[in-house]
Amino acid sequence: MAEGELKLLGLWYSPFVLRVRMMLEQKGLSYEYLEQDLSNKSELLLKHNPIYKKVPVLIHGNRVICESLAILEYIDENWSGTGPRVLPADPYKRAVSRFWAVYIDDKLLSSAIGILMAATEEVKAEKIKDTHTAFEMLEEAFKKCFSGKSFFGGETIGYLDVTLGSYLISIRAAERISESKLLDETMVPLLVEWENRFLAAECAKKTLPSVERVEEHARMLRRTRWEANSSN
């Protein structure tokens, strides 16, 4: 691949960007990372994602791919001979992985944001319960659909691993801020064991920010949101 041919427009704390970066690392691909400011969108971002105007955006030569799950599939298919395959070859297993990826994004994003931005203890408790339910469902899926494997992708990190793994730091930061246990070894022991293996992998260590940095950023966003609400 020519130097500079592969570019990623991203945001350092975004789970959707982090999963793409982990996939690129897992594949061993070289790329140029371009951090974006979504409060002052760059011409590059507006040009390449004029519809949604958000990250991640993968630029591969004259090809532009948006939306993180679509980008993961593109990387896996386009560089199928490079590094490990990250989507199952079997059509049924691939469909199952896609289903759970959508479930992860649907449930974990809204519950994590809800916990951080909750205006009352009742709302926070409801969102914590939703998060517990989501993890319990994923625990059952890991037990039944991916039984006996180290990762959702088998013995190597795959599509579902980076999809779920991209939320881990945000979840741990939300635990600190809310003073609650979200990913609890007494409730989901298989997922906690999986988390330890995942975070020890090179693609995660090279890519994920620290819990402290994400916590600081989340607290700042929460203060900004509350100040804006109180001034209205």
List the helices and strands and how they pair.
Layout (H helix, E strand, L loop, with lengths): L5 E5 L4 H13 L4 E4 L7 H6 L8 E4 L2 E4 L1 H11 L12 H27 L3 H24 L14 H7 L2 H11 L10 H12 L1 H6 L3 H21 L1
Parallel strand pairs: 1-2
Antiparallel strand pairs: 1-3, 3-4
Helix pairs in contact: 1-3, 1-6, 4-5, 4-6, 7-10
Protein name: Glutathione S-transferase
Function: Is involved in the conjugation of reduced glutathione to a wide number of exogenous and endogenous hydrophobic electrophiles.
Family: Belongs to the GST superfamily.
What would the average pLDDT be, to the nearest integer? Answer: 93
Overall geometry comes to globular
**What is the H/E string?**
EHEHEEHHHHHHHH
CATH names the topology of the largest domain as Glutathione S-transferase Yfyf (Class Pi), Chain A, domain 2
Quickly give the CATH architecture of the largest domain: Up-down Bundle
Instruction: Let me know the number of strands.
Output: 4
| Main sheet makeup | 4 strands, mixed
Radius of gyration: 18 Å
Subcellular location: Cytoplasm, Cytosol
Catalytic activity: RX + glutathione = an S-substituted glutathione + a halide anion + H(+)
Main location: cytoplasm
Function: Is involved in the conjugation of reduced glutathione to a wide number of exogenous and endogenous hydrophobic electrophiles.
